[in-house]
Design goal:
Elements: H1 9-15, H2 19-31, E1 35-38, H3 44-54, E2 60-63, H4 73-86, E3 89-96, H5 100-107, H6 114-117, E4 120-123, H7 130-140, E5 152-156, H8 168-179, E6 185-189, E7 212-215, H9 234-239, E8 244-247, H10 249-252, H11 257-277
Parallel strand pairs: 1-2, 1-8, 2-3, 3-4, 4-5, 5-6, 6-7, 7-8
Helix pairs in contact: 1-2, 3-4, 5-7
The chain binds 5-bromo-uridine-5'-monophosphate (5BU).
Residues 38, 40, 64, 93, 156, 159-160, 189, 216-217, 219, 229, 246-250 line the site of 5-bromo-uridine-5'-monophosphate.
Length: 279
């Protein structure tokens, strides 16, 4: 686990150099939540309804906007309004993975207009460091029309699916590339803390390095699905260094998604408190 994992979110918020990471930790503290809901429903109405009902309990709403056949400007405006109403950030799990020039067009403009409404996006570094340069340059351009302090990137350093090839040298390279972009890269989607001093012995980063870790594949009642997904509990994910835990079907497919969100919130917060108290 990284040495930062033991620090309370308030402390990480106050010393973090990245404004969006600061905001994440502030929202988490205010709401006593480290929950990200993966809202993988397939109509705008269901997505908006879920965002409104679960908004009070979550820090981030994670979307796969390209699974909505009825996506339109209305989807964007309703999500943006709810993000302000309930104080959560929006993470589009787009997993950019192409040459820099292409991802710039996929991120900024295009059909989905991701840079307009997604505070957080993610990418794989399979194609090398240029993808991160490309996305960060888009945001840093003088004519970028949105608030660049509210735009950030997570590098997909590991995946939860069975047989994932995002391991070893790939994961190490993810950490090295992240270090080159402290203003834009928030951290990782990974199954454990990465960077600084870790139990797996990656190189030691700068003194103030504090990558934020998002962990997917969290479920309180299932071990996996028939298509290779592998689950762990909130307690286990947070014990391995997750700062924010991402749950999809465990919440939105539950009989009562609001009650489920509250259970995940409680379990996630309890595990976080145990971690920072050293228990
Ligand atoms: P689930 O219903 O909790 O299994 O949904 C998991 C979500 O997280 C889903 O949107 C996936 O696309 C996403 N995901 C994942 O499951 N595993 C990964 O390694 C990454 C993303 Br990266």
């Amino acid at each position: 686990m990284s040495s930062n994992s033991k620090l309370p979110y308030t402390e990480r918020a106050s010393r973090h150099p990245n404004p969006l990471a600061k905001k994440l930790f502030q929202i988490a503290t205010e709401k006593k939540s480290n929950i990200v809901v993966s809202a993988d429903v397939t109509t705008t109405k269901e997505l908006v309804d879920l965002a409104d009902r679960l908004g009070p309990y979550i820090v981030v709403l994670k979307t796969h906007i390209d699974i909505l056949p009825d996506f339109s400007s209305d989807t964007i405006s309703q999500l943006t309004t709810l993000s302000r109403k309930h104080n959560f950030l929006i993470f589009e799990d787009r997993k950019f993975i192409d040459i820099g020039s292409t991802v710039q067009k996929q991120y900024h403009g295009g059909t989905l207009r991701i840079s307009e409404w997604a505070h957080i996006v993610n990418c794989s570094v399979l194609a090398g460091p240029g993808i991160v340069d490309a996305l960060s340059q888009t945001v840093e351009k003088d004519d970028f029309p949105y608030n660049r302090a509210e735009r950030g990137l997570l590098i997909l350093a590991e995946m939860t699916s069975k047989g994932s090839l995002a391991t070893g040298e790939y994961t190490k390279a993810s950490v090295e590339i992240a270090r080159r972009h402290p203003g834009f890269v928030l951290g990782f989607v990974s199954t454990r803390a990465l960077g600084k001093v870790t139990t797996t012995g990656e190189s030691v980063g700068a003194e103030d390095e504090d990558f934020v870790v998002f962990t997917t594949g969290v479920n309180l009642s299932s071990k996996g699905d028939a298509l290779g997904q592998q689950y762990q509990t909130p307690e286990s994910a947070i014990g391995r260094g997750a700062d924010f835990i991402i749950a999809g079907r465990g919440i939105y497919a539950a009989e009562d998604p609001v009650e489920a969100a509250k259970s995940y919130q409680e379990a996630g917060w309890k595990a976080y408190l145990a971690r920072v108290s050293g228990a």
